[in-house]
Each structure stands twice: as structure tokens, then as C-alpha cells.
Amino acid sequence: MNPSIARDTPPPQTQEEAAALHKQRLRAELLARRKALTEEDKAAADALIGQRVLHWCAAQAIHSLAVYQPIRREPDLSAAYNALAARGVHLCLPVVVDKQAALEFRAWHPGDALEKDALGTLVPPAGTAVVRPQALLIPCLGANAAGFRLGYGGGFYDRTLAATPRPLAVGVCHGFGRVEFEAQPHDIALDSVIFDDI
Predict the structure, then answer these.
(1) What pTM did the predictor assign?
(2) Is pLDDT at 9 greater than 90 in this prediction?
């Protein structure tokens, strides 16, 4: 046996390593598809998702909701946020306080001043009231049939949803984000996912 062949053969992947690699490839593919959306298609998708978020909040009697400021061409739901605030729903935004911690949520109303955090995300400034929302609105790159979310891999929402009692969690996702992947031990399923297709 040639020892160089044995040396150059990569070690076999564990099931968890294979699942992580599959998710990494899906992330790249879905980011590219989202980036390729025309402005017209993106605006139509954003409007449809926003309407469905409003219906979901009404059906669930949501009075306190964590929303998000879009990055990487995530759905822009600012019109829905305005409508929710007008209905008296208390909104807040997530803040990363530590790379290995759950998210913190700070009260926010559309129009309030925001500042960029260390990751470049817009957040309410330090000193803003910290709240515990009834539900979280979570952007997804993808989601599988079991309701597990594919995000950017930081694990912030999974750590947040691991808390007890946990808030309701609804994802928002483009229809092309319906993908299949195996959940990893740290993944936590969402309660529901709102898509822009059916």
C-alpha cells in the first residue's frame, strides 16, 4: 500500500459534519438566489410577506413582537411594522450582547433613532428599555418541512429560543427557501414559517 495515498485520504465525515457542510452549501445557494431577485420581485415578495405577518399577528393576538432590521436583502417589512405599531403592538429589536449568549431585546417604535452595533446591524442605543417579547419575527434564509430554520450560522436565535419560557417564533422566508436539511442538536424549530408563495 502506498503510504502517500493513505496520508492524502481525508478522514470520513461524521453525520454531524456532513449535515453542517450541507447547510453551509445551502446558505451560499440561497444567498445567491436572494441577491438575484429583481427589485420588482423583491418589493412584491416583501409586501406579501408583510400582509401575512399582519394576519398572523391578528390571529395569534400578538401584543408584543420582536422584529428585525433587514440585512443581506432580507424581506423589508417596514410597512408591516408601521401597521403593527398603529394597532398598538409593542415592537422591539434584537441586540447581540455576546457572541455566545442569547439575544437581548430593546423596545423600539418605527422612527426611533438606531445605531450600528459591532456587527453593522441597526439597533436601539444602549440604555433603551430591555423587554421580553411575546413573539419573535425571525428572518430565514431557508426552512425545512419540520420548521427548522436555516440562518447565517451564528446560533443567536437558537440560544434565545432555548430559554424557558420561550416566546412564540415565526419565521419569514422566500418560497425558494423551502429546503431539506437535517437539524443539528443545537437547532430549535420555529412555531411556524410565513412564505411568499403559498
Answers:
(1) 0.89
(2) no
Of the chain, the percentage scoring pLDDT greater than 90 comes to: 77
Average pLDDT over residues 185-198: 91
Q: Return the CATH number at 47.
A: 3.40.50.10420
Task: List the domain range (segments joined by +) for residue 72.
Answer: 14-195
Is position 116 within any domain? yes
> Does residue 131 lie in a domain region?
yes
pLDDT of residue 183: 87
On whether the CB atoms of residues 137 and 54 are closer than 8 A, the answer is no
**SS3 letters across 73-97:** CCCCCHHHHHHHHHCCCEEEEEECC
Residue 25 lies in a domain: yes
Number of domains comprising the chain: 1
Residue 9, in any domain of the structure = no
d(CA 135, CA 168): 4
Question: What are the grid coordinates assigned to 48, written together?
Answer: 406579501
Could you give the CA distance from residue 48 to residue 197 in angstroms, rounded to a whole number? 9
Q: Which of 82, 88, 73 minimizes the C-alpha distance to 37? A: 73
What does the pLDDT average to over 177-182? Answer: 94
